DUF2777 domain-containing protein (Geobacillus thermopakistaniensis), 182 residues
Amino acid sequence: MNIEERLQCIVEQPRAYVYGTVEFVNDEWIFFDEEEEEASLVEEIAEQGIEWFHCGHWLSGQWQDQGAVATDLGVFPLENGDRIRFRKRLTYAYQQWLAALPDSTFFQFVQWLNSLGFSLYDCLYCYNGLLFAKSSGVNFIIYDNTEQIGSIHHYYERGRASSDRFEITLNSGERAICAQIG
């Protein structure tokens, strides 16, 4: 299963989306991020698709240059103040790291991470030694869910027998281990 298929299996990760509103200013559609209070051009952030809040539901679609969203239900023009959201982008190293995990390890890791109060989308930094074709080593991933920070060490071996072991240390000093052998 590729990374996009895996992410579809776990659609509702906390903090997976950036939410905001749109306004038509100086002949351009501007997105105002609710959390960061920053403004961006919609066309620059909507490359992978956007979701538009309409009649109490989020409709998935593709941005249209004329200021509309093309959904399965039709093409809808946006109006000033409409709410949209888009999925946060995962960094290249992090996305490749997730893709390199065996399916069972990936899903066990996500469940473990979620049980600790973190989402896949809370990743601040990922060092991925697998990108350098190392058959064994340690990857470092830092997560921040706005309430706590977690530093994960991923000990891995690849070859005839693969193994993965995850250790997390929280900023509170708590530690936890998750191991997936084989």
